[in-house]
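Chapter summary example: a protein plus zinc ion.
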Amino acid sequence: MKTALNTVIFLLITASCFSQDKLLQSNIKYLTEKVQNYLDKEKTLSGYYSISELGIKMYASVSDKVKDKPEFFLEWKHLPDYQAAFRNCNQYTFDIYKTGKYNLTIPCLRVGRGELIDYIYPPIENRLKGKKIAIDPGHIAHNFEMGDLEKKHIIIKGDSLNGITDSIEIAEGMLTYATAILLKEKLEAEGAIVFLTRTADKCAFGKTYQQWKKDDLKTAVDSLYKIGELKAWQKDHFNSSKVKDRDIFRVVFRDLELAKRVELINNFKPDYTVVIHYNVDETNLDWNKTTNKNYNMCFVGGAFMKNDLSTKEKRFEFLRLLITDDLEKSIAISSSVMKSFESELKVPTATARDAKYIIEGCLPTEANGVYCRNLQLPRYVHSPIVYGETLYQDNINECKLLSAETDKTKNKRVQQVADAYFKGILNFATTK
Ligand SMILES: [Zn+2]
């Protein structure tokens, strides 16, 4: 797929040996198949776009398509320029989209790389020299109390039936952060410039959840009300003293904080983004049982559902995934990381049969264990992305291993996971 897109772009620019028509038809075919294979999960989105001899058009609604009133029109001759804009001046690409047409008057300056941060550790081998890598440690818990609030907290009571002698507690946010820190050190030792979206106890807003609530909840509620995301009664509810922390977290904080992570990552302009999560058995709704299941999987963007093109912003991201090679590169790097997960962790790769959400919410890619899924980060992050879901925390063996050590950077299993990410990324970056 990746090679095919490169070929398409290459041919588009240097078409001298091929007939223009043949070239155009192969572009149309490639992008049409890309939508069908990776982006349109339920085969319901054809009313929002068209790919034809004229170019690529995005529509706000099916009736706009009938009237041929596109909200954005990209002629084939402008495709290479718009693709380059995603690489070189990402911040303008949505502005361009909003004007309705590829617009050459919007400034697009090439931004020099590597000028932002100096790494502290001297590189040993430099195999990733100058590569900018963003790491997002999933969730925010730095203790079990916060893990409870975000419902990412495993508590398994000691019980002879489940083979656990002492009770086990794990907060996923503590595992992801420790993994991120260990991975960061390894990548920096190879010369990479690494950015983390949060610290151990502070979320992407640069403060704890409790501090955010004190400082920013009211403004957040007001602005969500203004754009119609909250109704009047919800606004009153969230401004009252009776509101539960869990509701604030779930309805107001969580998506805003994810949007902040996206903003930080896109400002950093990474070459790759790594999102770190640990999985659980989907049937263990309360995170209080053990399971025999254990799988690894990775997600990339795509698999938009019937109602997933409801805003201009979402339709713009659909177009970005279609016309840039972010998706092809995401699949390639995720595939490399998946192979490393399997060999380093000795945990099998998930097939589509292994979880309901893979069948219902994902599209398979040509890489084992790599699935298109329309999650917030893969949708909005403008770089190739690896969204890893390693091993099941509630697996009978894994939960025992993961519960060891209060400082999770000292946990052997977490160290193995960080190593698996590192080897997968390095392999991809050095064998391309
Ligand atoms: Zn998670």
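Key point: The two ends are 14 Å apart (CA to CA).
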